[in-house]
Specification:
About 25% of the residues lie in helices and about 25% in strands. An 8-stranded mixed beta sheet has the order 6-5-13-14-15-12-16-18, sandwiched between helices. Strands 1, 2, 8, 9, 10, 11 and 17 form a 7-stranded mixed beta sheet that branches. It has 14 helices and 27 strands.
Length: about 625
């Protein structure tokens, strides 16, 4: 991490200097606010943690509960979410606290004793080379804690407004400023039912499956229910089941299925237990099931192994439903030419599914990670409000793919083993086939104003346009530090262009890369020139990073182009972290791993949410400028 840019500051560098701009007094609600977020779940806090970085943006996040969550609900963190957490700065801490899922085992009825279960397969949970990050499990409340820590350390010192809920809202699309009127209500005992009204520029509903924001938009969750009850229980206990610290999928002969998930701390365990089939008119609450029913069913499924539950930490009974809204914002498709969206929904407010694929929290956070940088870009004036329409288009397609996969996965988990298959149960085949999906790595955004075409994809086959930037090891040139290249991306509004150098010597001023960097340095259309003309650091809009094919010992830092040695801050200090090289050992490097054309090199443009927006030849600086001008089309 980098700090001390504008002078030495003692103490924890993660605690950023408090902004002098405070849009509200302590204990009082503002009359106007840029963004109101409804709900302190993972989607809402992910968005709030992004906005908290910007004192120029006034943000509120409201929650009807009296304080932060402590236990229960989701627990699975995909490798893609871990990559996202790296941009916030807490992936390493989460890796240390959580349990890593390294292997998944599969159990079906024993062929000789069908009333017993037997292990029939095991696979590596995440295939090699998918990501530098692990698949982990941890209490959802700890994810909340980490986002809250980011908010508390940000310049705005953003704190949720607990005991406050949105009850209704209305939008006047003809209004030039603060067009959303938000009606709120107090939920604490001494002010229960007290009404409040705030004007907002934007509202984001992360308020769950019974979303008030969604209802106010006039949207509905449409879909179906499986009419199947499931129980989930977190407990401390003693068992002789040998795979209790593995992720395990168990299918019994006639008692149902269990998904075993080890949890953080070395002792805690979660079980997802298949309970009763429901009639089409029956709700799961009608059965009056309890934690004792979950445990009893688990004991039957685990036979002949014993289960002695010592302490129940949390439990719930739920019914599987697969539902999706038509749009994730308040503007109909035929009205998008007339006005931009002002109200958005994310997470369970716009898509619901079973928890067995472990994707609910991950996709919910992915929603607001997608929306956050767009809101920031618009509110800072870099982009026009039309950028916000890309949120619904991109994320609804992602949610639809999740629901389709979850339909298939739920059926596979509940299905009985095909007796004709002697090699691998169907659920194991489905797990292997869906490995990239459950890792969160199948999202590919279609072409738009922020995702380009694939004309030049052959120059960098390992960085598919529309997919997340797949990191790989490099060596930072100035200090010879080995690191993951993707870890230079930090949460915010800034785009990154990775310039993978051709085979020329780094100091060769006739090379395409040198000419490209010179254009960035002097062309009036360059984001660097524009940023400097406004008194900002040169990398305020676009972060330029170069990666050389040579070994790090064969490149002299002072020979590099000045763009890779930018002067920043009030003292004009040099940023030494813009250039990278290979380790020089002759083994596979990032150029091999990501199939980069060594002769021509390539430019890989990456969005603030880590997705590849464009792949271009190094000679196509004009195309790069044109693409970015279509994104940064707001006021100068």
């Amino acid at each position: 991490m980098q700090y001390h840019l504008n002078g030495f500051v003692p103490g924890d560098p993660d605690i950023l200097p408090k902004s002098r701009e405070q849009f509200r007094c302590a204990g009082e609600l503002p009359e106007e606010v840029d963004v109101i977020i409804a709900g302190c779940g993972p989607a809402g806090l992910c968005l709030a943690a992004q906005l908290a970085k910007y004192p120029e943006i006034s943000t509120m996040i409201v929650e009807p509960k009296s304080g932060p969550m402590e236990k229960g609900q989701a627990d699975g963190i995909s490798v893609r979410s871990m990559e996202m957490f790296q941009t916030f700065g807490f992936a390493e801490k989460l890796s240390r606290e959580s349990v890593w899922i390294n292997e998944t085992t599969f159990w079906t009825p024993d062929r000789v004793k069908p009333d017993h279960i037997a292990r029939v397969g095991r696979v590596q949970d995440v295939e090699d080379e998918l990501s530098e990050m692990p698949h982990v499990l941890i209490n959802q409340a700890r994810i909340h804690d980490m986002f809250l820590d980011v908010m508390h350390r940000a310049p705005t010192r953003l704190i949720p407004d607990y005991n406050l809920k949105i009850t209704d809202l209305s939008v006047d699309h003809k209004a030039l400023d603060y067009p959303v009127t938000v009606h709120l209500e107090r939920t604490e005992n001494d002010r229960l039912g007290q009404k409040e009204t705030i004007k907002a520029r934007y509202v984001v509903g992360c308020d769950g499956a019974r979303s008030t924001v969604r209802r106010a938009m006039g949207a509905r969750l449409l879909g179906d229910a499986a009419h199947q009850a499931w129980g989930v229980i977190d407990f401390l206990g003693v068992t002789d089941f040998p795979d209790i610290r593995m992720k395990s999928i168990i299918q019994s002969h006639d008692a149902g299925s269990i998904l075993v998930l080890p949890r953080e701390g070395g002792y805690l365990v979660r079980l997802y237990v298949e309970m009763d089939k429901l009639s089409e008119t029956e709700r799961v609450a009608d059965r009056g099931l309890s934690e004792r029913d979950i445990i009893s069913k688990a004991e039957r499924i685990l036979h002949p192994y014993r289960l002695d539950v010592k302490e129940v930490v949390w439990w719930s009974i739920y019914e599987i439903g697969h539902r999706l809204t038509d749009s994730f914002d308040d503007v109909a498709d035929d009205m998008r030419h007339d006005h931009a969206p002002r109200v958005f929904i994310a997470g369970d407010a716009c898509h619901t599914h079973s928890p067995k694929a472990g994707q609910g929290m991950n996709v919910s956070m992915g929603d607001t990670f997608n929306l956050g940088w767009k809101l920031i870009s618009v509110l800072l004036g870099h982009s026009k409000a039309t950028l916000l329409s890309t949120y619904s288009a991109e994320r609804r397609a992602t949610a639809k793919a999740l629901i389709d996969f979850d339909h298939q996965w739920s059926r596979a988990v509940s299905a009985r083993r095909d007796e004709t298959d002697e090699t691998m149960p169907a659920v194991q085949r489905k797990f292997v086939d869906g490995g990239r999906f459950t890792a969160g790595l199948t999202v590919c955004y279609e072409g738009s104003e922020i995702t380009g075409g694939t004309e030049w994809q052959h120059l960098a086959k390992g960085f598919p346009v529309g997919e997340r930037f797949h990191s790989a090891p490099v060596v930072r040139l100035a200090d010879a530090r080995p690191m993951e290249l993707g870890h230079v991306i930090e949460v915010g509004h800034r785009w990154t262009v990775f310039a993978f150098a051709p085979q020329n010597a780094p100091e060769d001023q006739s090379s395409e890369l040198w000419r490209f960097l010179t254009k960035l340095h002097s062309d009036p259309r360059s984001p660097i020139v524009k940023s400097k003309s406004r008194g900002q650091d040169p990398d305020h809009l676009l972060d330029v990073r170069a990666i050389y094919q040579q070994g790090f010992r064969d490149v002299e830092f002072t020979d590099l182009h000045p763009v890779l040695r930018p002067c920043k801050g009030k003292y004009g200090l040099i940023d030494y972290e813009k250039a990278f090289a290979t380790d020089g050992k002759g083994t596979k490097d990032i150029f091999d791993l990501r199939k980069i054309d060594r002769k021509q090199g390539v430019l890989v443009l990456v969005r603030p949410d880590q997705y590849v927006a464009q792949v271009l030849p190094i000679s196509e600086s004009d195309a790069l400028f044109q693409f970015l001008e279509s994104v940064w089309n707001g006021r100068p």
